[in-house]
């Protein structure tokens, strides 16, 4: 375990993934604090307490859930990156070292933020996250053959993403089979009785732009920032084989600055299942 002095002057900026929010990092933040490390978790546009809900989402029968256009349809990837940049500029004034941590779909906007202002970031950590280096969009990777083992994801989508302007799921579904599939896809190592609390904190819509907007990463900007990939070995949402493809293709873009790869056991959501192990892994490259 790292001592409290292992990361003096370091702050972790935590970016959530699809349908999640800042509060999902709470257990990890407590673990980081116990180890003497500061952190700040942010909400991407359309997430967290301010996340808009489809009008029938909380009504009996959930009328229109599969057809009502998302209030997040106009949210852009650039707006998401701008939110991250605002936080990076704020913390840069107070901390010597800024570590940007992105989970899952948060990797796209985090990568764009680092590409835009690489001097604000001392290290990027991708927690089983999108790395749009070898291919321009996260969606390009999700359609790859290596993603085939993550087949539960497609069965969880509600409606047509192109028509809705969002990738929509139903975290409050009355169907216990659906909720169990949601758990098995993203939280399979969290017991069902505990997941009963976690799934109610998810929001239904991920703006379509986050996984589908092309990101151009260059070796002289994004590529000069040291980076770590936390590879989740039993991930059912972003298969380990797909994580490996993203790592390999990113390293080909910046062969002189390859990923430091670390592994954690378990599901796509270690912030829920093993926050202490996650905090320790984050601190490993913080100096």
Which features does this protein show?
14% strand; alpha/beta; two-stranded antiparallel sheet; Rossmann fold; single chain; hydrolase; Sec-Metab_Biosynth_Hydrolase; 287 residues; AB_hydrolase_fold
Brief overview, please?
The chain has 287 residues and is an alpha/beta fold.
CATH superfamily: Alpha/Beta hydrolase fold, catalytic domain
CATH architecture: 3-Layer(aba) Sandwich
Given this structure, which CATH class is correct?
Alpha Beta
Mean pLDDT: 93
The topology string of helices and strands comes to EHEHEHEHHHEHHEHEHEHH
Enter the CATH topology name.
Rossmann fold
Indicate the percent of residues in helices: 25-40%
Terminal residue distance: 14 Å
**What percentage of the residues does DSSP assign to strands (E)?**
5-15%
Number of domains: 1
Sequence of strands across the biggest β-sheet: 2-1-3-4-7-8
Summarize the biggest pleated sheet.
6 strands, parallel
| Strand count | 8
Give the oligomeric state of the chains in this entry, treating copies of one chain as homo and distinct chains as hetero: single chain
- What structural class should be given to the helix and strand makeup? alpha/beta
Alpha plus pi helix count = 12
């Amino acid at each position: 375990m790292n001592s409290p002095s292992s990361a003096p002057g370091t702050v972790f900026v935590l970016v959530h993934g699809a349908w999640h929010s800042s509060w999902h990092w709470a257990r990890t933040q407590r673990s980081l604090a116990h180890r003497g490390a500061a952190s700040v978790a942010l909400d991407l546009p359309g997430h967290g307490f301010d996340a808009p809900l489809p009008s029938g989402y909380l009504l009996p029968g959930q009328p229109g859930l599969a057809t009502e256009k998302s209030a997040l349809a106009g949210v852009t990837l650039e707006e998401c990156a701008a939110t991250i940049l605002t936080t990076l500029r704020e913390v840069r004034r107070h901390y010597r070292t800024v570590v940007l941590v992105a989970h899952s779909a948060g990797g796209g906007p985090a990568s764009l933020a680092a590409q835009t202002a690489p001097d604000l970031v001392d290290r990027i950590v991708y927690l089983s996250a999108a790395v749009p280096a070898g291919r321009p969009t996260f969606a390009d990777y999700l359609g790859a053959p290596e993603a085939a083992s993550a087949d539960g994801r497609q069965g969880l989508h509600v409606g047509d993403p192109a028509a809705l302007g969002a990738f929509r799921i139903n975290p409050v579904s009355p169907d216990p089979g659906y909720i169990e599939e949601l758990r098995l896809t993203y939280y399979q190592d969290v017991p069902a009785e505990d997941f009963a609390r976690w799934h109610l904190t998810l929001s239904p819509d991920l703006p379509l732009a986050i996984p589908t907007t092309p990101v151009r990463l260059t070796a002289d900007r994004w590529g000069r920032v040291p980076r770590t990939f936390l590879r989740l070995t039993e991930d059912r949402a972003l298969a380990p084989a797909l994580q490996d493809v993203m790592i390999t293709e990113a390293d080909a873009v910046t062969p002189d600055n390859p990923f430091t790869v670390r592994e954690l056991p378990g599901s796509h959501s270690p912030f829920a299942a093993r926050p202490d192990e996650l905090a320790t892994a984050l601190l490993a490259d913080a100096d």
